[in-house]
Backbone:
C-alpha cells in the first residue's frame, strides 16, 4: 500500500478560486473523497470554496465516503447552471 | 427510437431538433428553448459564457434522456446544450420531445429541463451592461461565486 | 407584446413561430406542434382533411390567446392552425409561447392546446389506408360522425 | 312582428347529414335558438343530428334560450376536432 497522486479537476468558480483548472494531491492508500477534500483545503485559495463542495469520481457524483484509487478521475463540481 | 444528449458549440438549430424526433407515429412534438435574456436578478445582461465538465455533462445529458424516456415511455427525445459565448436571444439549450400523445410530450420536456438544471455540470458566467462578470448558479438564484459569504452547495 | 391566433392553409413554419415570440426579455420559448400521425384508434391513417367555421375559429383562437396570456401574464403567444389536406408528419397546429421564465411558458402552452381542442370550431376527416374516410371528434375519441348511435355532443 | 327567414350554417358531418352547407329556416318573431333547432329538425337528414347540437349565434356559442333575430349569423357546430 503506497501513497498515491491523484489529479483533481476544477471548473468555473472553483478553478478561479484555486487559480488552476486542475491540481495534483497526495493521498494515502485507501483514501476517500473526504481525504481528497482535506488535501484540496490545504491549497491557497481553497478558503473560498463552500464547506462541502460536490465531488464526482469517474464522472459520477460521489459521497464523502466513496473510495478514490489511482487512475480515478476526480472533479470538484461547483453549483451547476446549465439550461 | 432516438434518445440522445449532445454538447455543441455551434448555434442550436430548432429545425434540426424537430427533424430528429419526427416520426409518423408521433402526433405531438414539443420544443423547448432556453434563451439568453437581457435581465437577471434585476441586472442588465449582455451575454452569457457557458462552460462544462464536458465528458460528465454529456454522460448526464444522455442519462437524463434515457431515464425520462424510459419512465414516461417517450422514445424520441433529444437534448442539446451549447457551450461558449452566447449573445442575447441565442439558445443555450434545446429539448425536442415527440410522442403519439401530447400529455407525455409535455411531461417529458418539463422533467428533462428540471433535471438538467439540477445535475448537469455546466456553468455560466453572466456578462453585465456595466462590464462586470459573475458566475451564476441555478437553484435558488443565489450567487455561485466564491466570494466570502457564498451559500451552501445546492445538492 | 404578441398575442395572436391565425388560420392558415400554407404549411406551418416553426422558425416563423419561434421568431414571432422571440424577444430579449424572454428566457424560455416553447413550441408545440400537433402532427398528423399514422394511426388513430388502431386504424392506419394516410392523411387528414381539416375544415373550419373560419370566422368563428379565428375569433376563438384570438380569444384563447388573449385569455391564457392575460391569466398567466404571458405576453408572447402565437397560435396557428392549418386547414386543408394534410399528409403524415405535417403539422395541423403550432403554438409558440415565450416568457422570461419557463414555468409560465409550459403552463400557457398546455392550456392553449387544451382550450383549442375543446372549443375552436375546426373539424377533421381522417383518411384511412383502406380508402375510407371518417369525421372524428376530439373529446373522448369517439366518432363525430352522424351515423346512428352517435354520442352526445361533448359540450 | 313579422315572421323572419334565417340562414343556418352547417359544417363537416352536419353539412353531410343535411346535404348542404347552409339552409334557410322560417321563424316567428321573438324566436330562440331552440326554435331554430326545431325548424332544422323538420328537414330531411336531420334525424342524423345528435339530440342537442351546439349552436353559435354571431360566432359565439349560444344556449337554447338565446334570442335569434333577422340578420343574425346562426351556425350548428359539430363536435370540434381541432389540434
Residues:
Amino acid at each position: 500500500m503506497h501513497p498515491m497522486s491523484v489529479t483533481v479537476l476544477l471548473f468555473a468558480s472553483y478553478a478561479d478560486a484555486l487559480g488552476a483548472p486542475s491540481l495534483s494531491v497526495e493521498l494515502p492508500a485507501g483514501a476517500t473523497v473526504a481525504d481528497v477534500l482535506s488535501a484540496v483545503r490545504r491549497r491557497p485559495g481553497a478558503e473560498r470554496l463552500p464547506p462541502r463542495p460536490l465531488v464526482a469520481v469517474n464522472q459520477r457524483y460521489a459521497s464523502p465516503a466513496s473510495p478514490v484509487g489511482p487512475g480515478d478521475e476526480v472533479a470538484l463540481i461547483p453549483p451547476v447552471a446549465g439550461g | 427510437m432516438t434518445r440522445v444528449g449532445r454538447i455543441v458549440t455551434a448555434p442550436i438549430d430548432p429545425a434540426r431538433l424537430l427533424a430528429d424526433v419526427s416520426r409518423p407515429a408521433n402526433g405531438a412534438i414539443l420544443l423547448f428553448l432556453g434563451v439568453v435574456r437581457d435581465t437577471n436578478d434585476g441586472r442588465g445582461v449582455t451575454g452569457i459564457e457557458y462552460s462544462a465538465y464536458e465528458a460528465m455533462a454529456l454522460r448526464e445529458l444522455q442519462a437524463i434522456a434515457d431515464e425520462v424516456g424510459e419512465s414516461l415511455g417517450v422514445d424520441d427525445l433529444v437534448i442539446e446544450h451549447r457551450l461558449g459565448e452566447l449573445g442575447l436571444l441565442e439558445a443555450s439549450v434545446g429539448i425536442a420531445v415527440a410522442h403519439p400523445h401530447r400529455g407525455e410530450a409535455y411531461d417529458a420536456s418539463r422533467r428533462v429541463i428540471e433535471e438538467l438544471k439540477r445535475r448537469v455540470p455546466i456553468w455560466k458566467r453572466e456578462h453585465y451592461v456595466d462590464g462586470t462578470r459573475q458566475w451564476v448558479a441555478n437553484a435558488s438564484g443565489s450567487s455561485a461565486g466564491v466570494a466570502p459569504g457564498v451559500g451552501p452547495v445546492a445538492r
Notes: The domain at 2-136 of chain B is CATH 3.90.1170.40 (Aldehyde Oxidoreductase; domain 3). Confidence is low (pLDDT under 50) at residues 140-155 of chain B.
